């Protein structure tokens, strides 16, 4: 039997090549610039010395008469009182002298014997008392002034720097498609 001639068909597919490199994205951001200015707090305290006052003028007046003007005022007031008392006493002595004619009495000798005391000086010192010394103590509170601190902050934000480098995209045909027809071998000997 004779072989049937066969037609051979060979097919080669196309091969496409894609060479892609991704793009490069770069993001950088410089640091923010910070400026800070601080004014410190201020505290000032003004303190006063306490004051102690001792007034001993009434005590000195009771001890030795005090100031000369005060002592003179007391003496003058005392002399006026002593004068009035002495005047009243002399008036009484005068009334006793008027009784000279009474029998059995000797008013001149009696008056002379009783008049041995002199008139005392008036009291020139002040009144003695436990409360003659005045003590006052004055304390003033401190004055406090406070100024709070102030902070001034300035921030300069820098924008981000964005850079992009495109990648490459190569597309090419590595192998073309083809169809090959191989005819059967013919016997030419016939």
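Q: What amino acid sequence fits the structure above?
A:
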């Amino acid at each position: 039997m004779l072989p049937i001639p066969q037609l051979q068909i060979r097919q080669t597919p196309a091969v496409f090549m894609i060479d892609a490199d991704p793009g490069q994205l770069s993001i950088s951001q410089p640091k923010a610039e910070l400026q800070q200015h601080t004014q410190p707090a201020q505290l000032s305290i003004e303190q006063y010395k306490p004051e102690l006052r001792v007034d001993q003028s009434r005590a000195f007046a009771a001890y030795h008469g005090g100031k000369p003007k005060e002592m003179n005022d007391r003496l003058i007031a005392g002399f006026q009182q002593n004068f009035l008392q002495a005047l009243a006493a002399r008036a009484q002595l005068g009334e006793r002298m008027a009784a000279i004619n009474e029998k059995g009495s000797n008013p001149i000798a009696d008056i002379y014997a009783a008049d041995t005391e002199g008139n005392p000086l008036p009291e020139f010192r002040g009144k003695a008392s436990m409360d003659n010394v005045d003590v006052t103590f004055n304390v003033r509170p401190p004055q406090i002034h406070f100024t709070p601190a102030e902070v001034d902050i300035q921030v300069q934000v820098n924008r981000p720097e964005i850079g992009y480098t495109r990648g490459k995209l190569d597309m090419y045909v590595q192998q073309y498609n083809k169809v090959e027809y191989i005819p059967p071998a013919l016997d030419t000997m016939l």
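Q: And what stands out in the fold?
A: Helices lie at 57-64, 68-97, 107-114.
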